[in-house]
Amino acid sequence: MTVLFWQEAGRECRRVARVLGELITGELAEVVTVLPPHEVRHLRHTVFRINSLLYLYAKLLRRPHRTELGVLLGAITHLLDHVYDQPGAAGGDVRAFEEVVFQRREPDPAQPIQVALASLAREAWCGVADRAELSTRLAAMLHTQRCSQAQVGPAVAGPALWQLTSDKGHHSLCLYFAAVNPRFGTAEAQALRGFGSYLQYMDDLEDLHEDRAEWRQSPVRGVLSGIVRGTVLLTRALRDIRSYYPRPRHKTGVFVAWLLLFHAGIMVGALVREITCRLPVRVQEGLDRRQERLGSRIPFFYVAPLSFARRPGNS
After folding, report:
1. Which of 85, 303, 50, 72 lies closest to 196, judged by CA?
2. DSSP-derived 3-state class of residue 33
3. Residues paired with residue 118 on neighbouring β-strands, in sequence order
4. Partner residues linked to 152 by β-bridges
5. pTM to 2 decimals?
6. What is the pLDDT of residues 282-295, one digit of tens each?
7. What is the DSSP string of 55-77?
8. Residue 137, burial from CB neighbour count under 10 angstroms (0-12, 13-18, 19+)
9. What is the 3 state secondary structure string of 186-198?
10. Planar angle of CA 170, 171, 174, nearest 5 degrees
């Protein structure tokens, strides 16, 4: 059964690569010409990870998985993240992109990302389980995204920073699951709070060097302490998942196995990044190209940590 699952997971990753490739030559064609190369790569990894979450959630619920919707949600997520991460992003400018995703306004033809978001959102809304529920979840997620802009500079720290990043992960996770499950409700959302917090923390662990370079406050203080805390958060998240989805136990087995593999990959990636960031840039880029070649042969590795090479502007 395990072998069959991994074979199926490999086929799913190849489907993601195909669907994403069609988007890149279609709705995203102009966007990928204006995004920096590392952002295009980040887009791909975001798509693979979010689709993997929805794929495993479908297994958990024993329901069919729609790869196209997973890819759309991943692409929308990355483009919005990119907008929020822009230096000096003003509230009004950000709201314009949000309104496009809600389909409350037409995109600005001079804004390639707005045009792409409008097209992607139009397709995604047609495939969601409950538009009203998803609209509420999307509003909550976007609110935490706006609040996360306070992470640049010393404006938020300590417990407030942890609460902010925890909410960000939780609302994002609820948004994705509500998109495919018409029965998703308050009880399930509460049960997944620990899981959402864990996923966001691991994302922060992976992005630790980028956050430092951009003077962004992070709940992760260091790689080793981050690994320890991440493992504690994983233990709590697994307890909550097993408690909410108790029977039959094998329904959660695949989900847990993927989480453990994901956790190990982020930990190893963070440690390797801590070492390679001290190497010459050309060595980092060489390791990066090898990882890219591996991913092109085995798309499952696109779920792995992003890269070894420094991004532009990193120290």
Report:
1. 50
2. helix
3. none
4. 216
5. 0.85
6. 766 666 666 666 65
7. HHHHHHHT----HHHHHHHHHHH
8. buried
9. HHHHHHCHHHHHH
10. 90
